[in-house]
Amino acid sequence: MSRRNLRVLQAAALVATGALALSACGSSGGSNNNTKPNAAADYSYGTIPAASSNVVPGGTLHIAEDIGAQPNWIMPLTPAANSSVYDQYQFQYLSWRSLFWSPKGSTPDWDYSRSMTDGKPTVSADGKTFTIKLNGKYTWSDGQKVTSKDVLFWYYEYKAAVKESPANMGNYTVGQFPDNVTAVSAPDDQTVTFTFNQVLNPDWVLGTEFSQIVPMPAHAWAKSSDNGSMLDYTQPANAKAIYDYLSAASKKLDTYQTNPLWQVVDGPYKISMYNTSTGAANFVANKNYTGEGKPNIAEIDELAYTSPTAEFNDLQSGKLDFGYVKSDNYPQLGKLKTNGYNVYGLPSFGFNFSYFNFKNTTGGWDKAVAQLYIRQAFAHLQDEDAEIKGVFKGLAAPAYGPLGVAPKSPYTPESALTNPFPFSVDTAKQLLTSHGWTVVPNGTTTCTSPGTAANQCGAGITKGQNLDFTLFYTSTPKSVGQMMTAFAANLKQIGVNVTLKTDTFNNIVTNESVVSTPKNNNNWGMADFGGFTESIYPSTINLFNTGGSYNQGGFSDPTLDKLINNSMVSPDSNALKNEITAVDADLPGLFQPNEDRVYAWSPKLSGSTDSFAAATQFMLNPEDWYFTK
């Protein structure tokens, strides 16, 4: 689900680590030792060379799509079921740019050189009206300027989309944007104003509301049929008709390369081929691009893969100019360096986790996971130290909540830097036995003292009930399976039996979600598709608030809801830290190490250091790249 803006599902790329009690492997054979990140302060791996002065225009850049997460939605109003970093950052954003751009390289901050504005919105004296000034940089590929009308067009289509169904926008939560907007206007072609129904924290508005905005070409898209006339999109009936038309077109994957709609872009590239069987896509340079950077490379071919090994083999052979290195292949990083490839990695600003299903009534699972002590017992059976040392060879940062140790954020509370649930089978066992469970290691643990007293199992848990459940996890990379297998083995030591099932990222996002597919609620107890990227203002609104659009497991805590709301409206600098502290303690899921997102690229490919650093945050900026020979 998506967020440059709001959270973005990180899929197999930022998937959870593998939890294994393994010793660290040795050196990769390169200049950096894989058992330890080369920069402990930021957990980075490798270096990015300075940009070359030798620019050879043209050529075709071959890059890798992530496994099991091929893009499948082109319109920049993205439903929850399609809203991943791969759909947005590495597919849509090549053609349509967001109003406010982030990150700034690998730093979780605003990059106004790439934005359509030169700074933050101004706020009225009463704290309710926000004014955005466009900088006039961007032009549509047909020659028309990007204006405030294109921002309003996006806004009215957003309204139409969520009125039809909340699932039509991944970043939507009832009562939030656009429900909380009481007035919008475009005083001139470069000015937009939004008035909200209450005073809001300006950082929250920018990081959570406005960061979603992707202006759309009103002059080309505000119609309800291929040959229809342009409609007044401010009228609800027209806005609905337009949205239905655009949405239907976005569902027709086989027309992506031929539909004239998708050729009107303000980004550096536009689509020229889409393979409906694999999800592979080609883009050609937008010769009329006027934003930051210059699309020197004539064509970008995004290649689809079914396994990390196949992708890594293409990197080694030179078939790929730019690709990722999964943890499966960390021991072979030295081979890429030997071949002259540049290699760089850094944790992305986001988190990985396995989430609980609080709506699964099978065997009383919902009653069990509603008990904090049970979630704490499970958390004590995740060994982050072993995961980092074993599976990731040191290329990961610890994380005990939505804000981990790295990358750094000014909103990270001190409590988030120390593990509150260190690995301990004995502690996990004690938490259960002290609450009325008879623990049978390698057998089946059951509740033998039902009731609501402090030493009993808890509300709704019946005598003889067990804690067995089904866990779905993404099938690539193999580190996820290693982690889930080890986690299941640890649970078995306290008599909890886990049925492990694998699936693709896209399927888990769709099927193991109380938001997307509530009919499947009783099929699973936990799931792990990867995680989410964070906003610059990393509130967990939409993630862990009651009814949040990305609240995959249906978690609900009225106290946390109040804290989330407070970080939205309060100017108190500690409001967001208080929210994050509460999430860490609440355990809506089991948070996992934040793996380095490692990339490798050909020695003949060069560009700004920020553009390569941004790839670790899932952002693709090929308009800054060029071949040197």
Description:
The chain has 629 residues and is α+β, with helices and mostly antiparallel strands. Helices cover 23% and strands 17% of the residues. The chain has 16 helices and 23 strands. The strands form 6 sheets. Strands 1, 13, 17, 18, 19 and 20 form a 6-stranded mixed beta sheet that branches. Strands 2, 11, 12, 14 and 21 form a 5-stranded antiparallel beta sheet that branches. A 4-stranded mixed beta sheet has the order 3-10-9-8, with no helix packed on it. Helix 2 crosses helix 5 (236-251), helix 9 runs antiparallel to helix 11 and helix 14 packs antiparallel against helix 15. It is globular and about 75 Å long. It starts with 7 loop residues before the first strand and ends with a strand. The model is unreliable at 1-40 (pLDDT under 50).
Q: Which key phrases capture this entry?
A:
alpha+beta, six-stranded mixed beta sheet, globular
Show the helix and strand layout.
Blueprint: E1 8-9, E2 45-46, E3 60-64, H1 85-88, E4 122-123, E5 129-133, H2 148-164, E6 181-188, E7 191-196, H3 202-209, H4 218-221, H5 236-251, E8 269-274, E9 281-285, E10 299-303, H6 308-317, E11 322-325, H7 333-338, E12 342-347, E13 350-356, H8 365-369, H9 372-379, H10 384-391, E14 396-397, H11 425-433, E15 437-438, E16 446-447, E17 469-474, H12 478-492, E18 498-503, H13 505-511, E19 526-533, H14 558-569, H15 575-586, E20 589-592, E21 594-601, E22 605-607, H16 609-614, E23 625-627
Helix pairs in contact: 2-5, 9-11, 14-15
